[in-house]
């Protein structure tokens, strides 16, 4: 971000170049900004150059090139803004969308996703193994983004932990006295468990597919 005087100087340089086709002298810059000495102009010019707004060409008088006008973000600012739009999620391993497999956890791996893909709350990523959710558009090799949660509504796609050792991705069915985990593939039967045998670990929030 430029100071007021830096912005004034950049505006003056831009206007002078557009009008006269040559940069102003240091005395002209000093007079235009109402400064008492050239040293103040030198500091302002150096500040603009450090921030990527101008470039001074060596061994040439009045050799100042405008790289970008005032108000245009710098490359560094663009990089920071782009980074702000990316979220690194823990990649916790693979999860079955077929026969349940042992829950895996590898917090050292991460997956970068657009911030717009997720909402509030804590999220993590898992790789899908199996084909039991293909009718829901979830294929083997896909990466699912999961919002951490310990409760879910009937009909939501969840990560379920069965008997504290098997993890699977299924549609949650809530019935009196029991929990159903329903596949999205007619080749797999819905499995039923006592309510205390199934823990909700999270809810499906997004999907990433590599082609």
UniProtKB/TrEMBL annotation:
Q: Which InterPro entries match?
A: LexA, LexA-like, LexA/Signal_pep-like_sf, LexA_DNA-bd_dom, LexA_repressor, Peptidase_S24_LexA, Peptidase_S24_S26A/B/C, WH-like_DNA-bd_sf
**Residues annotated as site: Cleavage:** 97-98
Q: Which residues form the active site?
A: 132, 170
EC class, as a word, reads hydrolase
Q: Does the keyword Cytoplasm apply?
A: no
LexA repressor DNA-binding domain boundaries:
2-63
* Protein keywords: Autocatalytic cleavage, DNA damage, DNA repair, DNA replication, DNA-binding, Hydrolase, Repressor, SOS response, Transcription, Transcription regulation
Q: Which Gene3D superfamilies match?
A: Umud Fragment, subunit A, Winged helix-like DNA-binding domain superfamily/Winged helix DNA-binding domain
Where is the secretion signal located? none
Q: Which GO terms describe its molecular function?
A: DNA binding; serine-type endopeptidase activity
What reaction does this catalyse?
Hydrolysis of Ala-|-Gly bond in repressor LexA
Q: Share an example GO biological-process annotation for this protein.
A: SOS response
Domain Peptidase S24/S26A/S26B/S26C as annotated: residue spans: 90-204
Q: What is its EC number?
A: 3.4.21.88
Q: Which residues bind DNA?
A: 26-46
Q: Where are the transmembrane segments?
A: none
Q: Name one Pfam family in it.
A: LexA_DNA_bind
Entry keyword DNA damage: yes
Its subunit composition reads: Homodimer.
Q: Which family does it belong to?
A: Belongs to the peptidase S24 family.
Q: What does this protein do?
A: Represses a number of genes involved in the response to DNA damage (SOS response), including recA and lexA. In the presence of single-stranded DNA, RecA interacts with LexA causing an autocatalytic cleavage which disrupts the DNA-binding part of LexA, leading to derepression of the SOS regulon and eventually DNA repair.
This protein is called what? LexA repressor
The gene designation is: lexA
